[in-house]
Specification:
The complex is a heterodimer of chains A (81) and B (229).
Chain A (H helix, E strand, L loop, with lengths): L1 E8 L6 H12 L12 E6 L5 H16 L5 E8 L2
Antiparallel strand pairs in A: 1-2, 1-3
Chain B lengths: L1 E6 L6 H11 L3 E6 L10 E4 L19 H11 L3 E5 L1 H8 L6 E3 L7 E9 L15 E8 L3 E3 L2 H9 L3 E6 L18 E5 L5 E4 L17 H11 L1
Parallel strand pairs in B: 1-2, 1-3, 3-4, 4-11
Antiparallel strand pairs in B: 5-8, 6-7, 6-9, 9-10, 10-11
The chains are: A alpha+beta (81), B alpha/beta (229).
């Protein structure tokens, strides 16, 4: 089963990379931007028949390694493909 | 005193640390490999600077899963002395042996320069040979040294005196321009609640001989030797 994990800097955390991208977009004329945060996208293939089991494993993987919950928010999607 | 210096794939300062301990401080220091589980009877473990595992995922996140880190965590929980320098500091935060986290410098630039830090707490195994308020000139070289901790945790760290080093101007004054990476409260080095684990971004192992630009780093190593005596 495929798991897509999205990790972004936690709200309230200084994200200098996001800020630099925001500034660059504004210099291109995209002035409607209110906030940019730059994160990571991880795609996993996980063995397991039950989506619930995979979801539980994915949550543990995020908590223990893929994200640092002190400074990052994460969410994931579990899909068949 | 016996020291163990851990090498991870991508560690850079392991040899400099061994040199500082052996040649300059006259200590018995052994190299430890990340796949080892034994700490070789060392009384202080140093996790050196560098880019363990290429800084993949987050700095220190992969290294903290190494076999040797299980032993280091156990050693620290038993009260053993552990010091993490730069990447070692990042590894200790990722291993939850130290509070908080280290993220990208606010300038987004890699910084390589001499900084001044003030000893904020001199009653610890890592700072006891310095006076409180003493200024140390030490080099830094990192891209992700911005220390962060949140609200309750940050106030607890401050109240308990866990901040051992703070970035200051060369004259000792606290100024925002003297904070090279944007760390909260200008924190350059922090200890755990039990004061047996210490992480710092500046490199004491590179400040051990006047001909290399200064020897203020000796105060840190000397403190540890005194406290273990």
């Amino acid at each position: 089963m495929q798991v897509k994990v999205f990790i972004t800097p936690r709200k309230g955390i200084l994200d200098p990379q996001g800020r630099a991208v925001e500034q660059a977009l504004k210099t291109l004329g995209f002035n409607q931007i209110a906030d940019v945060r730059v994160g990571r996208y991880i795609v996993l293939e996980v063995a397991g028949a039950s989506a619930a089991g995979v979801r539980e494993a994915a949550k543990k993987m995020c908590e223990q390694l893929l994200a640092n919950p002190l400074i990052e928010d994460y969410r994931f999607e579990v899909g068949a493909e | 005193m016996k020291w163990g210096v851990v090498s991870f794939p991508g560690s850079l300062d392991d040899r400099d640390t061994l040199y500082a301990l052996r040649e300059v401080m006259g200590q018995d220091a052994i190299p430890l490999w990340h796949k080892d589980e034994s700490l070789g009877g060392a009384r202080c473990i140093v996790l050196p600077g560098g880019f363990s595992y290429g800084d993949y995922l987050r700095c220190g996140a992969i290294a903290r899963c190494s076999p040797i880190m299980r032993s280091v965590v156990r050693f620290a929980n038993d009260g053993g002395l552990v010091m993490g320098i730069c990447n070692g500091f990042q590894i200790l935060c990722e291993a939850h042996l130290l509070p908080g986290a280290l993220t990208r410098n606010r300038s987004l630039s890699f910084i390589c320069e001499q900084v001044t830090v003030r000893v904020a707490n001199a009653h610890t195994a890592f700072t006891r040979s310095a006076r409180k308020g003493a200024l140390l000139r030490l080099p830094i070289k990192h891209g992700e040294g911005l220390y962060t901790a949140f609200d309750d945790e940050l106030s607890a760290i401050e109240e308990r005196g866990q901040v051992l080093l703070r970035y200051v101007a060369p004259d000792g004054s606290a100024r925002d321009e003297a904070n090279p990476n944007g760390s909260i409260n200008a924190i350059a080095g922090v200890a755990n609640e039990r004061f047996n684990v210490f992480g710092l971004m500046p490199h004491p192992e590179h400040a051990i001989e006047p001909r290399l630009g200064g020897d203020d780093g000796l105060a840190i190593f000397r403190s540890i030797i005194e406290s273990a005596a």
